[in-house]
Amino acid sequence: MLVLVVVVVVVVVVAVVVVVVLKCCIVVVVVIVVVVVVVVVVVVVIVVVVVVVVVVVVVVVVVVVEVIVVVLVVVVVVIEVLVVKIVVVVLVVVVVVVVVAVVVVVLAVIIVVVIVVLVVVIVVVVVVVVVVVVVVVVVVLIVVYADRTLYVIKF
User: Fold this and answer.
1) Could you list the residue ranges that cross the membrane (predicted)?
2) Domain boundaries of the chain, sorted by first residue
3) Whether pTM exceeds 0.70
């Protein structure tokens, strides 16, 4: 949120300075707003890509760990079948099923979290863009109106 406030303040200051210096040149203000919006969108896309990459890495690590556990369990099962009773084999199979179920649940939770994060990021981007555009338009209108009022008062 602090970044959002800083971005809005910077945009407002830049818009006011440009409007005052260039005698309310609306085209320049629109170009500045477009550039700010493009920069914000690029930053959001970069953040989303980083989040997706982190999630993919976590999922890959979980799957690799699951495969290692399954291989170890199979080795133990083979050894147990050759050496010990059938009850141990049943217990190992139950452990394998529980581990697989836990991994599936963890993967489902990770996918849901990623979807929620992406939705939140998209909503925040839309809100930031709307706030920036509204603030710039209001500042431009205030400066233009004030400039015209002063112009009328002079003459």
Assistant:
1) 6-22, 29-51, 57-79, 86-115, 121-146
2) 26-128
3) no
The string of pLDDT tens digits covering residues 65-76 is: 877 888 888 877
Residue in the structure block whose two tokens are 């979980």: 62
Q: Give 9-26 pLDDT, tens digit per residue.
A: 777 777 666 666 655 555
Q: Which two tokens stand for residue 88?
A: 């141990």
| Residue 107: CB atoms within 10 Å | 15
Output the CA torsion sign for 117, 122, 127, 128: positive
User: 3-state DSSP call for residue 23?
Assistant: coil
- From residue 99, how far is each of 4, 62, 134, 145, 147 by CA, in Å? 43, 11, 52, 68, 71
